[in-house]
Structures are given as structure tokens and as C-alpha cells.
Amino acid sequence: MAGRLQGEASAYLRQHAGNPVDWWPFGDEAFSEARRRNVPVFISVGYAACHWCHVMAHESFEDPVTAAYLNENFVSIKVDREERPDVDAVYMAATQAMTGQGGWPMSVFTLPDGRTFYAGTYFPPRPVQGMPSFRDVLEAVASAWKDRPGEVRESAAQLAAHLASAQQGNRRLLGPVLDTGLDTDLDPGDAAADGTAAQHVLSAAVETLAGLEDRQLGGFGGAPKFPPSTVLRFLLAHAAAGGSTAAEAGALADRTLGAMARSALYDQLEGGFARYTVDRRWAVPHFEKMLYDNVQLLSLYAQWARTALGEGDRRLALRVTRETADWMIRRLRVEEGGFASSLDADTLIQGHRVEGGTYVWTPEQMREVLDPEHADAVLGLLDLESGNMAAHGGTGSTLHFGRVLSAAEEELWLRHRPSLAAARNLRPQPERDDKVVAGWNGLAVAALASAAVVLSDAGEAGEAGRILRAAGDAASYLLRVHRTGPTLRRVSHDGRARGIEGLLEDYAGVAEGLFTLYAATGDEHWYTEAESLVLAAENRFLTAGWLQDTAVRPNELVNAQGTQAAADPLDGPTPSGAALFAGVLLTYSAYSGSLRHRALAQSLLKHVEVVGAQAPQAAGWAMSVLQFLLDGPRELAVAGTDAAAVAELLRAARDAGGPGLVIASRIAAPGSAGAVFETRVPLLEERDPGGAPAVAYLCRGMVCRRPVSSAAELQALITGE
């Protein structure tokens, strides 16, 4: 074998470098080879932390007989979906169109020009319950290619036409940018858009989510249960904004955030969330831990720590915020400063991959570790079923509470938890995918900066400082390694960026992180870098009035979709690039005063009118941005000569503010005035403190109220608007 995958950044690709399958990375060379040999292409898509990807690899790709058949009859391409979400999205759409479902590993067969003619997901080594074996599939596809080539090409043409029609649906949803906008009431000049059609859509979305809620156990819908991160972001924003459905939105968010934090989805020993649970009760997770899940959830729990009504919920939210930030820094931070993509679902134990092998316990194992005097009491806190993993092919039980702990019970758990964590650390640990993804790391910067601010406001200055430094290190890594001039690379490994160009979600995600870091620190370097990324993304991804997720699209993907793709406005496990971009455009417009960028952000939210009330789970991030738009943005400029006085005003504003508050701050040298007070942030221009310890200006559209200098006055201004 040529060993083409050995030098790849992706741990997933490197995991397959030793297979007897002659794998190629996705690219022109592989498709050219298929054309030269006149054979179909087999594309296998997965990711490093995927349990069933490992299963199929062991059963089929490590099998010499299966590999020999693949090598003789196909050109085989291995794709990391995290590295190439553009490739994954195209072929997932094809798979779902053909089979009605999708998932990973994804197994796709294409013509040498990239068009799909057959697709599926996991195939077993032998026929099971009506599912053909992988070898049966390979033989059928090879036979069709040789004996019925006309039918194969016709099938590919029909599927490409179907996908092209679906792309027109995306175009209709998102529409041309800088068009008439959502509603005439949402003209950029009208900052207060209460009572508009958009407000009704958001209220209707809350009611739809209320109808979908699992009221008893939290979440929306039944098993499997994924953390509904973008939806929770919207619900918290809607609750903070006030209005007729605000209380209901807050209650929906509270129940799900509380349920997840007490469940086995959350690692009760050291923090961090698993990808999802297979059951309704949040008790049996698939154990992979993804950076993109944890950064979204960290931001949510940091926000919940500030807004939760009950003392117990606030205490829980602060603990989850602290623990998840700490887990990210200890377990995912790479040496150079960025954050790795994931921890595997499986642990290698005595030569065998065991899903969740690091994490599950028997009561006997726990008693061996715990202080005998308190073992019964600690075990009594847990909803420790007798081997709840047995029904899912494993042994032991996951650790979760399943109920609200009292303050005394929580103290008991926290006192004895370190001994369990120390014992678990002696076990074999899951592998880590050290691939650094730009967009996810941008969201990590935002989450860590938000967590640091919340913990600082709660009196945990030491921990907050450590977390904020980690956010700054990650931001510096992204700018140093991933950025070259105006362009951004999507992935890096071992401190070196690879050739994959950044997508819209990467530019917008990094800008989101830098804006949030600026708001947390007042360091204008982060603001200017965020500004340059927003402007670069505008130039790179807006073409002839349409937004695209990718600036450079391989011909094979254009062929597979039958058209040049528009940006997908709908969320998946991560926020859509379009929604992320709308959010950073709106933030930038608030800092800069640019009405054009506000209007551009507004034009990217038109799909919420169509999707919000009917399928809110697909538009959570966009709905939170729309809530931001409706609530403001309100701009807050705080300047002064006394760092403590400035910090007091900022803390008061954060405690009082809703989802539409954008914060800029500057500490001037004592005695400075006029031109001496220099800034690169337009919102701070002409906001000279005049030598005062601290003054705050609350503005809308750069038109400001009279400055105030006390926390009470500022909170009265904010809450009185």
C-alpha cells in the first residue's frame, strides 16, 4: 500500500493508514485515478471518536480479503467529516435521499466525477436482520458498474438532479442577502422592534418547543437524546429579553440544563459532556466527548449561572461551568495552545476496544475506592442501576444522580469524588484526536472567556484568570498558526496548519471568539483581529448576492449536488455558518456603527420566519441572533482611569443586561483627556472619561444617554429601557 494517510492531520485518517485497503485522501488525484482505471469510487466518511466507525474498520477494512476486493474494483477514499464538513454534507444529503436516514460511518459509491449512485451507513461483515453484508454490497455495486453502466449513470444523474432541487430550497430559505429584510418594522433604523412579526415567530417557537419537551426528564423528544445546544441558547436569550413567553422559555431551559447536568451525559467525576445518550433518561451515553458540544454547553452553563432563579440551580450552573472549563484545559488543550477535536468513545483495554471502558463502574469497584464509613451514603446519591450498560453490550453502570441533590448531599459527593476520579485516571484512557479545527476553537475562546467573566463576577478570581489565559492562548494560536494574511486554514496538527481552506463557520466562529475575548478583557488587539475576519468573510463568501459556506468548491462536489451550493442556514450539531456569520455581523455593527453590516446580518435571518415556529431545533442559533437584533443591540461604552471602578460598572451591566448588550471598555492613564484617549473601537470614540474613575455610556445606534458613574444608575438605565 502507498500509505497515503500517514502524514495527514486527521487522527481518523491516520487510524486507517495501516489498513490493507489502499486509501486515498479526498482530492483530485483520487478521482483522476478512478477515471484512469475506469472504476467506481468508494467514499467512507467518519470521525475519530465514532464507535461504529471503529467497528466497521475492524470488521471490514482490516480484513485482507475485503480489502483486496476493494482495491481491485474501486478507488477508496477516506474522509474525516470534521476536517471536511463540505464533503460530508454533500454525501450525507445523497445518503439521506437514497435511504431516508444518515449517520456514521457513511458509505458512498460514486462515479469518477463524484456523483453518487449508491449509499448507506454501517454495513456488517455478514447479513444481519435484513441488512446486507459489506461484501455483498461491494459485489453488487461492482457487478452493476460492469454489467449495467447505463443504469448506474442514470441513477447518478437523477440523484444529482434531486440534490440540485434541494439546494434551491436552501436558496429560497436564505434568499439573496441585503434584500428587503425580515420585516419593514425591522429596518436598521428601528432598534426597538417589539410587536413585529419576528417577535411572534420567536414566541411561536417557544410554544412549539414546549409541545416537544419531555417535561419529566428534560430535553425535546425521545431517545436518542442529544444536547439541544443552539435551542437552549435561544431560550436563554428569549427569557432574558422579557415578553409574554419569556418565563416559559426560561423554564424550558432550566429543566433541560438541570437534567443534563445531573445525568450521565455529564461526566460527574471531572466535567465535560458526552455526544448523546441512547435512552430517554440521559442514563446511557455514547461516550465520545466532542469539543464542539462542550464549547456550546460551557457557554450555556455560564449564562445560566447568571440568570438561574434558584440558588441550587445557580450553584449547579457555576460548578458545571468551572468543571467543564477545567476539563477542556486539562484534557483537550494541545501543547501549542489550541484545543483538540475529541476524545474517543472507546478505550483500548487488553487489546480490545470497549465503548465507555474508562467511565463505567460496578458498586464493588466503587466500594474498593471509597472510604468504607461513607461508601453507602455516596452510593445512595447515585441512580446506580444494576449494570445499566448490559442492555447496550457493556458491563457496569454510568454515574448519574437522576434527581436534585440537597446542599449537604452535593457537599458529600464533592468531598468523596476526588478519590473516584483518581482511581479512574489509573485506568486506560480514550484516545484523543489532536486535530485543531479553527471554527470550533473560536467557539472555545468565546466559551472560556464567558466562563471566566462569570466566575470572576462570582468571586472566583483565581480560577477565572486561569481560564481567561487559556482563552487568550487559544486565540493567539489561531491567529499565529491558522491565519495567513486575510485567509484562514480550517485545521492544524502539531502546530502546523494544513492546506484545507477555512469555511464560513471557521471565519465566523473565530470572529465570535475574538469579539467575546475583547469584551472580557478590553484588549483592542482582539477587536481589530475580529473586525478583519468579519470583513474577510464578507469578501470571501458573498458572491453575486448569495452567501456560500465554502469559497473554493471541488468540481466533484459541484457534480454531486448538480449545482453550486448555497450556504445551509440550518443548524446541525454545530451552528450553521450563516447563523454564526449573522451574529458576528450584528456584533460588529454595534461596535462600529455600520448600518450596512446590521442590514446584512438582518438579511441572513429571513429563514427564521419560515423555520422558527415549525422546526425551531434547526434554527436555534439564528433565533438567538434575531433575539439579539430585536433587543438592541444596545451598546455600552465604559471608560475610566480606575480599573476597579471600571470593573464594577461592567459587572453591574452584565448582571442587568439582556441578550442585546454589546460591551466595550477602556482604561485610560490617570489625567488623560481628549486626544490622549486613543482607541481603535468606534463605540469608544469620544467617550473620554475626563479623568473620572469610571463612566458608562448606554447607547443605541451610537446615540448615547447621559453618562453615569455608579452601578445603581447604570442598572437603572439598562433595566428601564
UniProtKB/TrEMBL annotation:
<dbReference type="InterPro" id="IPR008928">
    <property type="entry name" value="6-hairpin_glycosidase_sf"/>
</dbReference>
<dbReference type="InterPro" id="IPR024705">
    <property type="entry name" value="Ssp411"/>
</dbReference>
<dbReference type="GO" id="GO:0005975">
    <property type="term" value="P:carbohydrate metabolic process"/>
</dbReference>
<dbReference type="InterPro" id="IPR004879">
    <property type="entry name" value="Ssp411-like_TRX"/>
</dbReference>
<feature type="domain" description="Spermatogenesis-associated protein 20-like TRX">
    <location>
        <begin position="4"/>
        <end position="163"/>
    </location>
</feature>
<protein>
    <submittedName>
        <fullName>Thioredoxin domain-containing protein</fullName>
    </submittedName>
</protein>
<dbReference type="Pfam" id="PF03190">
    <property type="entry name" value="Thioredox_DsbH"/>
</dbReference>
<dbReference type="InterPro" id="IPR036249">
    <property type="entry name" value="Thioredoxin-like_sf"/>
</dbReference>
